[in-house]
Amino acid sequence: MATVALGKARKRDRQDDVFVATQWTLMWRKFRKHKLAMFGTTIVVLFYVIAIFCEFIATQDPMRRDTDYIHVPPQSLHLWGPQGFGLFVYGLKMEEDPRTWRKIYTEDTDVIHPVRFFVSGDPYRMWGIIESDRHLIGTDDGPFFLLGTDESGRDLFSRIMYGIRISMSIGLVGVAFTFILGSILGAVSGYYGGVVDFIIQRVIEFILCIPAIPLWMALSAAVPKDWPPTQVYFAITIILSLIGWCGLARVVRGKMLELREQDFITASKLSGASDSWLIFDHMLPGFISYLIVSLSLSIPGMILAETSLSFLGLGLRPPAISLGVLLQQAQNVKTISLYPWLMIPGLVIFIAVLAFNFLGDGLRDAADPYK
Question: What is the mean pLDDT of the chain?
Answer without folding.
Answer: 84
